[in-house]
Specification:
The complex is a heterodimer of chains A (267) and B (266). Chain A is built from two helices and 19 strands. Chain A is mainly beta and 267 residues long. In chain A, the strands form four sheets. In chain A, strands 2, 4, 6, 8, 12, 15 and 18 form a seven-stranded antiparallel sheet that branches. In chain A, strands 1, 3, 5, 16, 17 and 19 form a six-stranded antiparallel sheet that branches. In chain A, a hairpin with a 6-residue loop joins strand 10 (150-155) and strand 11 (162-165). The longest helix of chain A is centred in the first third of the chain and has 7 residues, at 6-12. Chain B has 266 residues and is mainly beta. In chain B, strands 2, 4, 6, 8, 11, 13 and 16 form a seven-stranded antiparallel sheet that branches. In chain B, a hairpin with a 6-residue loop joins strand 9 and strand 10 (160-163). The radius of gyration of chain B is 18 Å and the shape is globular. The chains are: A mainly beta (267), B mainly beta (266). At the A-B interface, helix 1, strand 1, strand 3, strand 5 and strand 16 of A face strand 13 of B.
């Protein structure tokens, strides 16, 4: 079944889900941060601990609440609103997998061998189309040498040995909660699994997690907010057991506070 | 029964409800303000006086108007607001509030809130999507309080604790509204057991705890914002909803607001 008309859209609206996150630390203009470890509501996440091969996620304490549709129905994102005290891009994402235990000391080819993703790529499969990898810092580095980290992954077509590089320069100090995406190689459309991560130079004392995620929606939020609704969002599908969380890319260095809501519709 | 078609939506439109509020106190950028005590339409509410355990609310003088449907459900079909400055306007349901908090006491004060009405995110008393705010009804003094609450979460787990999502500022004006955060993993509050104002207290003034659920959020860019049945997600308003407004200003200035609400019932 699917929503194909306004009646279906209207009949399927679910309760709005609100979020509000406290002040970040000092931001870096253009560098994304994961908001889910900040005080607010829902209550914040705790850092993952499933080990280097990670865990496929169907829920995780600290996510934005999500209601599964009843059998035979599909959930769609119908509205996403966000306000931030500084301008920035606010992304509503689905968190498919995350890991822990990857050392930030120097080393090439560190084993990850991620477990299979849940069936929540762009097409509702485990292939990985539209799935990206980010590195999330739950403890900031205090010293070290900056370098270009890379991952070796299998793409959504099943081709192994692909390489992605972290998009942003990794700082040697500071950067709590930063969420740095890896690029894809060539014309790849997504990541099916991660085999290794390489760090040509090391950091001191940071704690990181690799996260497999899919962006559901992005809006530009200012102090007067930004939003999308069913008319301009394309109504992305939120597959069963979606684990919604928020990434923000601030446009200024000023610490920021972000709030908003999303509404799903089922049919 | 429920509204599931556009035809039913159109047939269920209720008359528009106008609201306007006189100039607020000087607001603080990023600090929420409750319009509950501001003069205007509706008139200013009187400060609650039900005692520490509070009262579950089915109506309260000073709320935005709400009438239960003859049959079926009530939904928010339209919400618009125009303000004197940029900011975010929240339409909230006020489920419970209390009184009698000693603003000079720095030790834990027993609340043991009475049960909420069945108006959480799912229409139950469990507390999903229910948040707690600290609302000022008489301007507070110079004490730099750091309030915390001990509560039971939406799953029935007791002993949860949280501080404010926005830091309390000494000498807060009437209407200052400070939502509490939630403890890691929680999605709502089922009841409040105690409140502690921290080592400093507030010196003077009157404050209340308020259990509320956010129904809608609109961003008043260029001073105006709105949502309709489709763009707003058509949220359900359960019977005996007690609507009130909370504004998150973008600048430090006083503001006045006006706007409209409309419900659809069926």
């Amino acid at each position: 079944m699917a929503i194909t008309n306004l009646d279906g859209l209207l009949a399927g609206f679910k309760r709005p889900v609100f979020f509000r996150y406290g002040f970040t630390g000092t931001n870096v203009a253009g560098r994304p941060i994961s908001l889910v470890y900040l005080d607010g509501y829902p209550g914040k996440m705790v850092a993952p601990t499933p080990g280097v091969s990670g865990a496929a996620l169907t829920s995780y304490a600290g996510q934005l609440p999500f209601e599964n549709p009843t059998a035979g129905q599909t959930a769609y994102l119908a509205r996403f609103v966000a306000t931030s005290t500084v301008p920035g891009d606010v992304m509503l994402c689905d968190r498919l997998w995350h890991n822990s235990g990857v050392s930030v000391s120097i080393g090439l080819g560190k084993t990850v061998n991620s477990v299979a993703w849940p069936a929540r790529d762009n097409n509702g499969s485990t292939n990985g189309e539209g799935v990206m990898i980010g590195v999330e810092f739950t403890t900031a580095p205090t010293a070290g040498t900056t370098s270009e980290w890379s991952i070796s992954y299998t793409n959504s077509d099943g081709t192994a040995g692909r390489t992605g590089y972290v998009e942003y320069s990794i700082p040697t100090t500071g950067g709590l909660n930063m969420f740095l995406p890896f690029t894809l190689q060539g014309t790849d459309k997504g990541v099916r699994s991660v085999q290794t991560i390489s760090m040509p130079a090391g950091l001191t004392s940071a704690v990181i997690s690799l996260v497999a995620y899919r962006v559901l929606a992005v809006i530009r939020a200012n102090d007067d907010g930004g939003y999308i609704d069913f008319t301009n969002s394309g109504m992305p599908i939120m597959y069963e057991n979606t684990v919604p969380f928020i990434i923000m890319r601030p446009a200024t260095t000023t610490s920021s506070r972000t709030s908003g809501m999303y509404v799903a519709t089922h049919g | 029964m429920a509204i599931t078609t556009v035809d039913q939506l159109v047939a269920g439109f209720m008359p528009q409800i106008w609201f306007q509020k006189s100039v607020s106190p000087t607001l603080v950028a990023g600090r929420p303000h409750s319009h509950f005590y501001d003069a205007g339409i509706p008139g200013a509410a009187a400060a609650p006086a039900p005692g520490m355990s509070g009262a579950a609310l089915t109506s309260y003088e000073g709320q935005l108007p709400f009438t239960n449907p003859v049959s079926g459900n009530t939904y928010l079909s339209r919400f618009m607001a125009m303000t004197g400055q940029f900011g975010t306007m929240l339409l909230c349901d006020r489920l419970w509030h209390n009184s009698g908090i000693n603003v000079t006491l720095t030790t834990a004060q027993t609340v043991n809130s009475v049960a909420w009405p069945a108006r959480d995110g799912f229409g139950s008393t469990n507390g999903d999507d229910v948040l707690i705010g600290l609302e000022v009804s008489t301007a507070t003094g110079a004490g730099a309080s750091v309030p915390t609450i001990s509560y039971t979460n939406q799953a029935g787990t007791a002993g949860r604790s949280a501080g404010l999502a926005y830091s309390y500022a000494a000498s807060s004006a009437i209407g200052a509204f400070y939502p509490f955060a939630l403890q890691a993993g929680d999605t709502g509050v089922r009841s409040v057991q105690s409140v502690t104002l921290g080592t400093a207290g507030m010196t003077s003034g009157a404050i209340h705890l308020v259990a509320f659920r956010i129904l809608a959020q609109i961003d008043c860019g260029q001073g105006a914002g709105y949502q309709d049945a489709f763009t707003g997600g058509f949220p359900r308003l359960y019977d005996n909803t007690v609507p009130f407004l909370v504004f998150l200003p973008s600048t430090t200035t006083a503001t006045r607001l006006m706007g409209q609400l409309q419900y659809a019932q069926g």
